[in-house]
Amino acid sequence: MHDHRRLGRELELFDTDPLMGAGLPYWLPDGAVVRHELEEYVREVERAAGYRHVYSPVLGKRKLYETSGHWSHYSDDMFPPMPLGAEEVVLRPSLCPHHALIYRSRSHSYRELPLRMAELGDMYRSELWGALGGLTRVRAIRLNDAHIFCTLEQAAEEARAALELIGRAYADLGIRAARYRLSLPGEGGKYVADPELWRRATALLREALDGIEYEAVEGEAAFYGPKIDVQITDPVGRESTLSTVQIDFHQPERFDLHYIGPDGAKHRPVMVHRSVIGSVERAVAHLIETHGGAFPAWLAPVQLIVLPVADAQVEQAAEVVRRACALGLRAELAAPADGSLGARIRAARLVPYQAVIGEREAGGDLAAVRLRDGRRPGALPVVELLHRIGERVRARGAELWAAA
Ligand SMILES: [Zn+2]
To answer: Family per UniProt (predicted)?
Structure first.
């Protein structure tokens, strides 16, 4: 594995500027491609799993976080409030309160449950300066978040389905879970006091974890409830949390959420909080480290590099690039002016597909294909090459070349 901070700079994926501020990385075009593809992937698997997406603002009134309990239990991690006329607004430390209000804005029948509300939204954490680094400890976070509003009877099954979604995404992305952790409250006043609520939520999470090996750890719960943390490790073996599933009785209470049951009466829903890839920053950091910058084809900033052998084939090669781009692929030309063919091939070593065009290939609308892993499928008609790359990219698999 590799250090994502070094690779991120070398590959020009992201960077920071002291004038923007520590812990506030910006994304360069190649990094932005990886992030965009990852976000689209998440939206797609969520849509397929029955989630509907919303957008909500990154600011909220101080009163909102007093209602949610963040103000009294979590303010150490929040930015100071900003005065705005007679009010105060806060950069949000989580998306939950906004989603609770969106749920509350309409009346809901039990027939609509489970109601799965998802958002890739920004949130802020006032991390201490000394703790900041790369993409893993940042002050501005793009969170892959969702809240499932459901009945008590549905909660364990929804938590279970969220764990399955996490497992599927990890398989697609080549991420390995180091371990599953059931995070319980510890000593101190950080947690809301309601022993019965903690007991019930913990029992439901244990039910969702049935058949999965996990470790229960005290002191790592959210302030409003226990959670399942899916842990990953970095190159030096340091563990961190990527994905989470939580069961929450507290916020539905605080926001007075309800649904109309079959009996025509109001009932309190349960909130299941879950994140499939956690923060986009941490997920990309982990992908950079896992793949050493050699991303699966569907995530790669450049998917195809076209290499004319000599100046005489530059026009033909540029045409291949145009055709690839027209098909939605990310292709670039590396012309002889950029160096010898060998040097250009080495410079493109992280690009999944290389198409070399010499005199023979140019004459027959062919390309000599080389894969990043060293395989050489040989000369193929350009139209077939582009079709095959397009298929691999759409399949979002790790395998670069499918057997014909
Ligand atoms: Zn939440």
So the answer is: Belongs to the class-II aminoacyl-tRNA synthetase family.
The confidence score (pLDDT) of residue 191 equals: 83
Per residue in 149-187, pLDDT (tens digit) is 999 999 999 999 999 999 999 998 989 999 999 999 888
Q: What is the pLDDT of residues 22-32, one digit of tens each?
A: 999 999 999 99
Burial string for 60-79 (b: 16+ CB within 10 Å, else e) reads bebebbebbbbbebbbeebe
Structure tokens at 139: 């002050």
What share of the chain in percent tops pLDDT 70? 99
Angstrom distance (rounded) from CA 292 to CA 48:
30
Q: How far apart are CA 157 and CA 375, in angstroms?
A: 45
* CA 386 to centroid of ligand 1, rounded, Å: 42
How far is ligand 1, taken at its centre, from the CA of residue 263, in Å?
29
Distance of CA 238 from the midpoint of ligand 1 (Å):
25
The rounded distance, in Å, linking the Cα atoms of 264 and 135 is 49
Q: Please say whether the beta carbons of 252 and 270 come within 8 A.
A: yes
Average pLDDT over residues 101-127: 97
Distance 354 CA to ligand 1 centre (A): 44
Ligand 1 centre from 147 Cα, in Å?
Answer: 6
In order of start, what are the domains of the chain with their CATH numbers?
Answer: 4-291 (3.30.930.10), 304-395 (3.40.50.800)
Task: Pull the structure tokens for residue 72.
Answer: 């009294």
**Burial of 214 by CB count in 10 Å (0-12 exposed, 13-18 middle, 19+ buried)?**
middle
- DSSP per-residue codes, 46-103: HHHTT-EE----SEEEHHHHHHHSHHHHSGGGSPPPEEETTEEEEE-S-SHHHHHHHH
pLDDT of 132 > 90? The answer is no
